[in-house]
């Protein structure tokens, strides 16, 4: 029995319309949305290319370095790969469903791809983060794994899936969760292919080994951030668990999940395939649920597994319900679009009476803030900020790296890799703050300190001018606290190098400790 030609043609038209409209929308948002703090932080990775960066593996830094070489510092160019990611994944969703569904049900594949494109986070995915290469390579690895699972033997496809998973590992380490899902699937439900996870692991091993080496030679910064520093305050919490459940439902939409759960897979789809798809999305969602009982799970953590859900759900929904689901999803997206357009296009004065007024001005009129901070800055003076987010945004417009003054927090510690505070000894420093600063915090580290307010578009900001930076007390108080709090490397991890601790002579976290 062949597919109804009218229904199939209509489904294709719907998909390509959704593909074109969402791509145009992403192009528009990428062109007009102000460069955010996280984007500006990762931009510095591309501006200072290296094999290793703080917090996360280096793939997004390498990507930005390449895009800068091609098109300079234009935000649309820097975001160009990101805005294509969900569009490319939608094509993978359609491709897999066309392969898995009976020929007469091909229309389902195109409509499921359209629903995926209409999900709010899908067309909002335009900002440059470490999730850009992560989500793309996770989706490709999943696509290759399903190709292997549905092949006669699939050895080559399993190896390809592992190599792609290794590439995702260079984006973020929790790509490993997809590898664990492969193992759970093969060893729990596909035991005749017990060897498949081993092939995946072998192909991913070079990437894993490279990351281990780069960590060992850079103070285990990724391990310290992801395993220790960010989890010190974790404790059991029903609130974080319920927040995760709500977020997960939002990502996949309750109506798509409900409709798929109560529907049956059509005849002609192999039972093993049904199980494969179910395990590969349910396993990571359950693992995140368990983690959510002790810590907050970021929305972006789960994004890489939504394409797996989309294929599973698309397999279980016929054409008519998929059309209704598409309508519901578009309706969900509309309020998101209104909010985003309000942030980007509304007059700054609209936000003057809100608690976000200074943040909106800082985001929208960042060049004016930088211009104000440059006024009166001595030629040998250095602009700094009190936290990584404003430091990164100022640096993007300032054209020079802006260090973080003070201990900062556990995340975004790129300063530990590249900044040498010894070079500022005796020099003037200007430190930006959103709120009025307490000069007693700065006084021990300068010969003289003063503060000044300035106004941009009705929002008040502050800076501290410190004359004659004193490195010695800064090392003993601030940098020593950084070494103690963020470089307390467990003894069982071999330290082959640690730029921060070696630079400032902290032996407890240096090689040969």
User: How much helicity do the residues have?
Assistant: 55-70%
User: Which class of secondary structure composition applies to the elements?
Assistant: alpha+beta
> Which word captures the global form?
globular
Largest sheet: 4 strands, mixed
Query: Mean pLDDT score, rounded?
Result: 94
Q: How much of the sequence is in beta strands?
A: 5-15%
Number of helices: 25
Unreliably modeled segments: none
Q: In total, how many beta strands?
A: 4
Task: Explain the overall architecture.
- This protein is α+β, with helices and mostly antiparallel strands and 513 residues long.
- The protein is built from 25 helices and four strands.
- It has a four-stranded mixed sheet with strand order 1-2-4-3.
- Strand 3 and strand 4 (459-469) form a beta hairpin.
- The longest helix is centred in the N-terminal third of the chain and has 28 residues, at 5-32.
- The termini are far apart.
- The model has no long low-confidence stretch (mean pLDDT 94).
List the helices and strands and how they pair.
Elements: H1 5-32, H2 37-47, H3 59-71, H4 75-78, H5 80-100, H6 106-118, H7 120-123, H8 131-149, H9 155-169, H10 176-189, H11 196-216, H12 221-228, H13 238-252, H14 254-261, H15 271-292, H16 299-302, H17 306-316, H18 319-345, H19 357-364, H20 366-374, E1 382-385, H21 388-398, H22 415-418, E2 429-433, H23 439-442, E3 446-456, E4 459-469, H24 471-486, H25 499-504
Parallel strand pairs: 1-2
Antiparallel strand pairs: 2-4, 3-4
Helix pairs in contact: 1-5, 1-6, 2-3, 2-21, 5-6, 5-8, 5-17, 6-17, 6-18, 8-9, 9-11, 10-11, 10-15, 13-15, 14-17, 15-17, 20-21
